[in-house]
Amino acid sequence: MVLVFFRGHWCPYCRRYLGKLRDHAGRIRAGGTQLVAVSPEPPTTAAALVADLELGFPVLSDAGAVVIDRYGTRNGFAGAPAMLPHPSVFVIDRDGVVRFRSVDRNYKKRTTVRTILAEVAEMTGQVLPTP
Question: What is the average pLDDT score of the chain?
Answer without folding.
Answer: 90
